[in-house]
Write a structure and sequence with these properties.
Blueprint lengths: L1 H9 L3 H10 L2 H22 L1 H11 L4 E5 L12 H5 L5 H10 L2 E9 L1 H8 L14 E4 L5 E4 L15 H11 L17 H16 L11 H10 L8 H15 L7 H14 L1 E5 L3 E4 L1 H9 L3 H9 L7 H16 L3 H7 L1 H17 L5 H9 L19 H14 L4 H5 L3 E5 L3 H13 L3 H7 L16 E10 L2 E9 L7 H4 L8 H20 L4 H5 L8 H12 L7 H8 L3 E3 L6 E3 L2 E3 L12 E3 H7 L2 H17 L5 H5 L6 H25 L4 H11 L4 H11 L5 H11 L7 H10 L7 H8 L3 H12 L5 H7 L1 H7 L9 H26 L22 H12 L3 E2 L2 E2 L1 E6 L7 E5 L5 E2 L3 H17 L19 E15 L5 E17 L3 E10 L11 H18 L13
Helix pairs in contact: 8-15, 10-11, 10-12, 13-15, 15-17, 15-18, 16-17, 17-18, 21-43, 24-26, 24-27, 24-29, 28-42, 29-40, 31-37, 31-39, 32-37, 33-34, 33-36, 36-37
């Protein structure tokens, strides 16, 4: 029986045999394969199992890593609102600009081969994107100074989103997204919606019409809004790119997409594009949308949305309707939120009814929401920026903005960027807090800042204070503190030109010592006999002193250091009784302390006590030395009245003075239309027929007699001129009838003003350079009288002025080499006491050069920049070391350090000494220079007396060096007429430095092991 059973089992089943036979027949094979494929497709459409297997395996090779140095083949996106806003599309240009500014890529992301292929195919790289990003500024230890995150209010996790909001979003956009029955579901593709959309599109094309319906799931919408050009789908290939990219992104976490799909809901709600609002800018996300467009508190709104419904909960209905309206507005943000809010209300109401019918919301919520009105706010910006509270961060932002070429801070704040500054947050905050407190009279009293030479008389809130502190390190001078109490974007430290008074004596002293060093270099190698034969011009007192010193010096006294020290012992009168021809006129000067008027002081003593007249005379000697200290000096040539070069020099004078007038008149008229410029000119001309006619014809020579008559009549109301008189004026005032200088005299207008207005009329849009070049012949013609010999006295005065200008041009080159921030010096001896102005930051840089033995190091505010951290575009840059430059002789720097120390020990800054004790014992070593600037405009009468004085500003500053490592400035400044009510001097910033010493003490102790001098002493 067992054999029968085996035989029976071996007998083939009939239907299996028929199937096997049929598989060998094509007519049967093809339908079977088709059936299997159809079943497999149906299963795949419902489960996405195959996609999950393939795409999750692909995701394992779609990676990137961050390695040292620049990537050999960096990839950055080329378009897309998200990539543009975060700066990813501009990274290549940013890196080029940063490289030119001295920054080098230290680390950068490398894409895997798979990611590189995706990028080459035009797909969007799959990585966990940041919903929120923005600029962050940190201090040298990573402590936050400033941070922006856009959008500002978001859902940080799925559980934070109210279920009512989730159900609403899914009903509107993607109903199957969170289907828990399909763990491997590809959220990027909804096959039914896709098939329907393709069908409608195909039928429309066949019928010659364009019809389309949305086939986008939430993931593909996110791809579109973030990465497609302008956030739009322009062609089927764009849609395909979005779907593939979204699919790859969905399976990054593995085959199961449950967590990814929940995150998609959060990301979409946080990324809603909601147009730009006045006073705020771009609005993204439901949280910011509720606040900006409806003025609602996001946290409170979520509490209401998550609450259990009640029949008459109007507040909950109001929040829900507004939330629903923003989700719907994302389809056409500008239209609904800006152009036609009424349409948005109607659209929202229609959805409320549809959702109630579908059971998504109950009838009670529907009716309560329908009763609410959407009241969209316009111009709902945030509070005004408190500039005074983030001066250091604003300084960093402004610098980054300039380096990257991103002019608007609005755009800069939205970059995915972290800037590591050199600022020290505790010291920065301590300085800022102190400066803010100085506006309170009671605080001033408590700190002892009220009294003679300090505050009093004016409103203390009008005083602007600034503080800068740098640390000298081997890699550069790093900014540790830079702040002021001005609640405006302006940076007082580095953005204003201020008369800082006697701090100019420091620059003058250095110029003097450099001139002495140059004389030492010229004469120190000569023997006593050779020195006796040296011819020095009688006016060159400095050259005369140098020769005499070296003739008498022996041994080491002939060295540069001893000669520099000896030069500080030269004595000058401090008498204000003398008048000085300078700046084109005769001027007198006064000392701050009248007790100095009768003294004869050494340069060292005058520097310690800031005596003006000594430095006026020192500057005169310096100017004279520049003019007469060289055998080939032009000043020597022009002493000869018959020297043929006089005429060439006068020609240069005419060119210089004429150019200055041309620039002045260009600035006056450059923004005016031709008719307005003519009207302004005629209003200044002599109100006589001849004067007006001359001005009119000079500017508008092509005017017809009829136009001329009409224009003249409007300027001479009530004075009827006959036709013959007008015709006669027209002929006699033609430009060719008299020289330009004469026309200016007749019209009562500077002749070059006539010429500039006429030229701009004929050449609208001309720039200053073009106008100056075109005026060459006219400038010479206007000053041609200077060449007449009967005006020899006037020539001599103008030659003296121009020679002085030449000397100050030479002086300026030396000041500029040491960081002077302006393009010229005022050609006047008053420059020695501050008339040319300065900037606190520039003075601090000079102090750094002195402290560093004459070596100029780069000033470093930003050490590192980190772009797109945590993305395939991550790039980290550090500042490359730049070689220092020797710009001042070490011997000169050493001598200047010595006199700066004496200013604190027994000079104008001696009030600082009680504050120099260290917390851990010992005393801080400090030196500096004080300065007080009382800036006024004066109008002088014919006899030289002052007929008018107008206060422009008052300033006091103290520039200092501290403990071999630190240097900086403190400045007090009052702009405008209010300055006339104040009488503070440099004693005020000296006291403020004393108040800041505890913070500086914490910053400077203990000294880091790496803080060594850049140049050995």
């Amino acid at each position: 029986m067992s054999g029968d059973v085996l035989a029976q089992r071996a007998r083939p089943v009939p239907w299996v045999s028929r199937l096997r036979e049929g598989l060998h027949r094509p007519a049967v094979l093809i339908p079977v394969i088709g059936l299997i494929l159809a079943l497999a497709t149906l299963v795949e459409v419902r489960t996405s199992a195959m996609q999950a297997l393939v795409l999750s395996n692909m995701a394992r090779v779609l990676t990137y890593r961050v390695e040292a140095g620049p990537s050999p083949s960096p990839h950055f996106p080329s378009s897309g609102p998200y990539d543009e806003r975060l700066g990813y599309t501009r990274l290549s240009g940013f890196l080029d600009r940063l490289d030119a500014s001295g920054y080098r890529v230290e680390q950068q992301a490398r894409l895997s081969a798979g990611l590189e292929h995706l990028s080459a195919w035009g797909l969007y790289l799959p990585y966990r994107e940041k919903t929120r990003a923005g600029l962050e500024v940190v201090d040298r230890d990573g402590r936050p100074l400033y941070a922006t995150r856009y959008p500002e209010q978001v859902y940080d996790r799925f559980e934070a989103v109210p279920p009512l909001l989730i159900n609403t979003l899914l009903f509107i956009e993607n109903r199957e997204l969170l289907d828990a029955r399909q763990p491997y579901h590809n959220p990027a593709v909804d096959w039914r919606r896709l098939a329907k959309a393709v069908g409608v599109e195909t039928i429309g094309r066949l019928g010659g019409e364009r019809h389309s319906i949305g086939a986008s799931t939430l993931p593909t919408q996110l791809e579109k809004l973030r990465h497609s050009p302008e956030g739009r789908t322009r062609a089927p290939i764009d849609k395909l790119r979005q779907m593939i990219s979204a699919s790859l992104r969905a399976y990054q976490g593995g085959a199961s997409t449950r967590a990814t799909r929940r995150q998609i809901v959060v990301d979409y709600l946080d990324s809603l594009p909601l147009a730009a609002a006045a006073g705020y800018g771009e609005v993204h996300g439901l949280g910011d949308g509720l606040r900006i467009w409806y003025g609602m508190d996001f946290a409170q709104a979520n509490v209401l949305l998550a609450a259990k419904p009640t029949v008459s909960d109007a507040a909950r209905a109001r929040v829900f309707k507004r939330s629903l309206s923003l989700i719907l507005a994302a389809r056409r943000p500008y239209y609904y939120l800006v152009e036609n809010p009424r349409a948005l209300e109607e659209f929202t109401d229609s959805y409320l009814r549809v959702m109630a019918r579908a059971g998504v919301i109950d009838a009670g919520l529907r009716d309560a929401a329908l009763a609410e009105r959407l009241e969209i706010q316009r111009g709902a910006g945030g509070p005004p920026a408190a500039f005074v509270e983030r001066k250091g961060a604003n300084l960093v932002r402004t610098r980054v903005s300039a380096i990257l070429g991103v002019p608007a801070l609005y755009d800069l704040d939205r970059l995915d960027l972290t800037a590591r500054s050199t600022l020290d947050a505790p010291a920065q905050e301590a300085a800022a807090r102190l400066l803010r407190s100085l506006r309170d009279p009671s605080t001033l009293e408590r700190l002892g800042l009220v009294g003679e030479k300090l505050l009093g008389g004016g409103d203390p809130a009008r005083v602007v204070y600034s503080v800068t502190l740098y640390e000298r390190t081997p890699g550069g001078n790093r900014v540790r503190v830079q702040t002021d109490n001005l609640d405006q974007p302006l940076d007082i430290n580095g953005g204003a030109r201020i008369d800082l008074g006697s701090t100019a004596k420091l620059r003058t002293l250095i110029s003097y010592l450099e001139a002495v060093a140059a004389l030492h270099d010229r004469y120190a190698r000569l023997s006593a006999a050779e020195l006796a034969a040296v011819a020095v011009h009688p006016r060159d007192r400095m050259g005369e002193w140098a020769v005499e010193y070296l003739r008498a010096a022996r041994g080491t006294d002939r060295g540069l250091g001893p000669m520099l020290e000896a030069s500080l012992e030269r004595r000058y009168s401090a008498s204000p009784a003398e008048a000085f021809f300078t700046g084109g006129g005769l001027h007198t000067f006064g000392n701050f302390d009248h007790e100095d008027n009768s003294k004869v002081l050494t340069i060292r003593e005058a520097f310690q006590n800031s005596v003006n007249l000594v430095f006026i005379r020192l500057m005169r000697d310096l100017v004279t030395h520049h003019l007469y200290g060289s055998p080939g000096s032009l000043a020597l040539v022009l002493e000869n009245p018959v020297d043929p070069r006089r005429d060439r020099y006068l020609s240069r004078f005419a060119d210089r003075e004429g150019s200055e007038f041309v620039r002045r008149f260009f600035r006056k008229y450059q923004t005016l239309a031709a008719a307005d410029a003519l009207d302004l000119l005629l209003s200044a001309a002599r109100p006589t027929p001849h004067g007006l006619a001359t001005a009119l014809r000079s500017v508008y020579p092509e005017a017809s007699p009829e136009v001329f008559r009409d224009l003249l009549a409007t300027r001479l109301p009530g004075r009827a001129l006959s036709d013959k008189a007008v015709d006669d004026l027209y002929e006699r005032t033609a430009p060719e009838a008299m020289p330009l200088a004469d026309r200016g005299y007749v019209a009562g207008v500077h002749p070059l003003e006539l010429w500039v207005v006429g030229y701009l009329r004929r050449h609208p849009g001309a720039g200053i350079g073009q106008v100056v070049r075109a005026s060459s012949a006219e400038r010479q013609a206007v000053y041609s009288w200077l060449f007449l010999t009967r005006h020899r006295n006037a020539q001599d005065h103008r030659i003296a002025s121009l020679l002085e200008l030449e000397a100050f041009l030479d002086l300026h080159r030396g000041w500029e080499r040491l960081g002077y921030p302006f393009a010229s010096l005022t050609p006047s001896l008053a420059t020695a006491i501050g008339s040319s102005g300065d900037r606190p930051a520039a003075l601090a840089e000079l102090m750094g050069i002195i402290l560093n033995d004459g070596v100029r190091q780069p000033t470093v505010l930003i050490d590192r920049l980190e772009f797109a951290v945590g993305t395939p575009y991550e790039t980290r840059l550090g500042r490359a070391e730049q070689p220092p430059t020797q710009v001042l002789a070490p011997e000169v720097a050493a001598v200047v350090r010595g006199v700066l120390t004496q200013v604190v020990e027994r000079g104008t800054a001696r009030g600082l000494r009680p504050s120099l004790a260290r917390a851990g014992g010992g005393t801080h070593a400090i030196g500096g220079k004080t300065g007080t600037g009382d800036h006024r405009y004066f109008v002088y009468g014919k006899n030289g007396s002052v007929v008018e004085s107008r206060v422009v500003s008052r300033a006091a500053t103290f520039v200092f060096m501290l403990d071999e490592r630190y240097f900086g400035t403190v400045t007090a400044y009052v702009p405008g007429p209010e300055a006339g009510r104040f009488h503070f001097t440099s004693a005020l910033p000296v006291r403020i430095v004393g108040l800041l010493m505890p913070s500086f003490d914490k910053l400077s102790s203990p000294a880091p092991a790496t803080a060594t001098a850049s140049v050995a002493r």
